Amino acid sequence: MIVRKSKAEIEKMRRAGQVVADVHKALRDVVKPGVTTMELDRLAESIVRKAGAVPTFKGYRVGKEVFPATLCVSINEEVVHGIPSDDRVLEEGDIISIDCGATLDGFVGDSAVTLPVGKVTEEVTLLLERTNGSLYNAIEKCVPGNRLGDIGHAVESFVREYGYGVVEDFCGHGVGRRLHEEPQVPNYGIPGTGRRLKAGWCLAIEPMVNLGTQETIMLEDGWTVITEDKKWSAHFEHSVAITADGPIILTSRGDDPPGPWISGASGMF
Ligand code: MG
Ligand code: MG
Asked: Using CA atoms in the order 123, 129, 133, 136, what is the torsion angle rounded to 10 degrees?
């Protein structure tokens, strides 16, 4: 069942989302060569808890596995769900996907961004810009009456021409009182197909886009997902409310870093 949120619930979702936005804003200034991924995690957890929220991912279970941290940190060929570590030091030229969830007053915010560490190659810069662009292209489709296939197609069609692999093994999802609710939100689709979007739905849209193959492998830690060909991967995510007045990006403070992906869309949000 797809849970529709009331206006009051969407406001609670927005407040949870703002905590996640605050984490991302703080981490943007801290990510640099020499920093460990565990340092990022500690900072993120302190921001979440100071806001009176709880880290949603910490203690999250999939089967027997329990996720141990506030952030998922996925570097270079890692796609999603990497585990923070004192031993993993960021290096110049890396990219890091930082995914954060916060639960406040019973509702979850979920958002990810991939950041360059120092200076990265032009090929990688373009991957980041285009993947984030595909997210915003999909968010524009989040209006009542459109269909789920329109969202997936908006992601896929935005990046396909560059020869990237769009990950299909993982997808976006409904979000609300629980981190993962119905429906699943794939990053591919056929326009005009699938469930019709309704006001009150809240969706976490999260394109994962690879420089090479779309195929992925899970590492032995039971969490970290990497690309099969070890080529690098980008991941961007926002939690979005669908309303009669248009999409509300719950996990943005409206100060996302500027880039070509926002031109033409910034007025809407
Ligand atoms: Mg996430
Ligand atoms: Mg998510």
From this structure: 150
Report CA(100)–ligand 2 centroid distance (Å): 9
Ligand nearest to the CA of 112: 1
Can you give the residue ranges of every domain in the chain?
7-253
pLDDT in tens, the chain (269 residues): 999 999 999 999 999 999 999 999 999 999 999 999 999 999 999 999 999 999 999 999 999 999 999 999 999 999 999 999 999 999 999 999 999 999 999 999 999 999 999 999 999 999 999 999 999 999 999 999 999 999 999 999 999 999 999 999 999 999 999 999 999 999 999 999 999 999 999 999 999 999 999 999 999 999 999 999 999 999 999 999 999 999 999 999 877 654 444 433 333 33
Residues shown for the chain:
269
The three-point CA angle 176-181-182 to 5° equals 125
Amino acid letter, 222 = G
Q: What percent of the residues of the chain are helix, what percent strand, and what percent coil, each to the nearest 5?
A: 30, 30, 45
Residue 159 has which token pair? 């990046």
From the CA of 101, which ligand is nearest? 1
Residue 173: nearest ligand to its CA?
Answer: 2
- Residues ≥6 apart with Cβ < 8 Å to 5: 13, 176, 200, 201, 202, 241
CATH code for the domain defined by 7-253: 3.90.230.10
Among the bound ligands, name the one nearest to the CA of residue 81.
1
pTM here is 0.95
